[in-house]
Amino acid sequence: xxxxxxxxxxxxxxxxxxxxxxxxLIPTMVMSIVHRITGAALYVGTLLVAWWLIAAxxxxxxxxxxxxxxxxWFGRLVLFGYTWAxxxxxxxxxxxLVWDTxxxxxxxxxxxxxxATIAGSVTLTVLVWIAGYMARGG
Length: 138
Known about the structure:
It contains four helices and no strands. With 138 residues, the protein is mostly helical. It is elongated and about 75 Å long. It has helices at 27-58, 60-71, 73-100, 107-136. The chain has a single domain (27-136), classed as 3 helical TM bundles of succinate and fumarate reductases (Up-down Bundle), CATH 1.20.1300.10. 9% of the residues are buried. The longest helix has 32 residues, at 27-58. GO terms for molecular function: electron transfer activity; metal ion binding. One of its GO terms (biological process) is tricarboxylic acid cycle. Heme binds at residue 89. It is found in: Membrane.
């Protein structure tokens, strides 16, 4: 019998590698996963920005069509999510930049940074949208 499956008397057989039953989700782990997800979402969001720019360069009627889609409640929800993903990914990148300097890597500090990334991204997203509505005149 190989070492990986052999057990000593009285010992229970454990998995060969860590898996979801072993891990307890912690804020830094969740932020790592969300950072990857927001990075992928930014690809889709950037395609939407490119579509809007192409529509602006194509014709007035096509631009109005795309603008109408983006101005709908669903379009605004998608754009709000894109804004949050952009800001969250940026703050996560800044967090990693700080870690690259070798600072703020302690367990408590990194957990605080993870929570700050969430709070900061939500706060900045709301502020950006408030500023956008104010710039439009209400």
